[in-house]
Amino acid sequence: MSSRKFFVGGNWKCNGSVSKVKELVDVLNKGEGLTTSVDITDVVEVVVAPVALHIPYVQEKLRKDFKVAAQNAWVKGSGAYTGEISADILKDFGLEWVILGHSERRSLMHETSEFVAEKTQYCLEKGLSVILCIGEKLEEREANKTFDVVASQLTPVADKIKDWSKVVVAYEPVWAIGTGKVASPEQAQEVHDNVRGWLSDKVSPEVASSTRIIYGGSVSASNSDELATCKDIDGFLVGGASLKPDFLKIIQSAQKK
Ligand SMILES: O=C[C@H](O)COP(=O)(O)O
């Protein structure tokens, strides 16, 4: 049994409405099917990331054993950065978590790994915990570059931060995101093992063994149990299925660890 607490994040992306978010929060609060002999959050840490405008409602109404994350933060402190939200503001609002470097931001907003590393450094300095997303595109996997890509995404972060205790690494192969094409447990485990090895070599064996490496990409209620049995998969970052009651079944997969 790993000492790393299982982690399940729900990334709601740019989805929802006032009424849909209310329904979803109600579903999570009821927690139907979350059956453990202990409190579920003794064995799994659950964090959901709504659209920024929906955060205040979710923060107020969501069961307090689940946490709320922002989906992004600005690279610096508050100031003349129209449309952005700084880590200072997130922290002041009582948030503990932020997702950084999601592949959608890397590709659509052209965020580089250096920029993501700067954001990571700043958010950690402000006391936020970071879900740091990495992952290769299909053509990179096909060219056998997966390990090089994840290393190149992690290197600028390792150059900037010393303390990894508030970082969860989310391995999300881009070809598996929102496609229904989940990585096989073998494919995911292979990369997670590689990332842990990289952390051991480039940061320290202690950081490698304590850092949670979670998987994201078409995780669903029908594949989460099997993925959870993999040695180096410490949880999930869930997109589409986190908007449905299925999210509870994915949380329940922590029992497979
Ligand atoms: O952040 C979550 C990932 O992008 C996965 O999304 P998905 O579960 O819809 O494939």
Q: Keywords for this structure?
A:
about 260 residues; alpha/beta; TIM Barrel; eight-stranded parallel β-barrel; 8 strands; binds glyceraldehyde-3-phosphate; Triosephosphate isomerase; Aldolase_TIM; isomerase; triose-phosphate isomerase activity
Structural overview:
The chain is α/β, with parallel strands linked by helices and about 260 residues long. The chain has a single domain, classed as Aldolase class I (TIM Barrel, Alpha-Beta Barrel). Helices cover about 40% and strands about 15% of the residues. It is built from twelve helices and eight strands. It has helices spanning about 20-30, 40-45, 55-60, 85-90, 105-110, 115-125, 140, 145-160, 185-200, 205-210, 225-230, 245-250; strands at about 5-10, 45-50, 65-70, 95-100, 130-135, 165-170, 210-215, 235-240. An eight-stranded parallel barrel has the order 1-2-3-4-5-6-7-8, surrounded by five helices. α6 (about 115-125) packs parallel to α8 and α8 runs parallel beside α9 (about 185-200). The chain is globular and about 45 Å long. The termini are close together. The model has no long low-confidence stretch (mean pLDDT about 95). Glyceraldehyde-3-phosphate binds next to β8. Glyceraldehyde-3-phosphate binds near residues 102, 216, 237, 239 and 240.
Short synopsis of the structure:
This protein is α/β, with parallel strands linked by helices and 257 residues long. It is 41% helix and 16% strand.
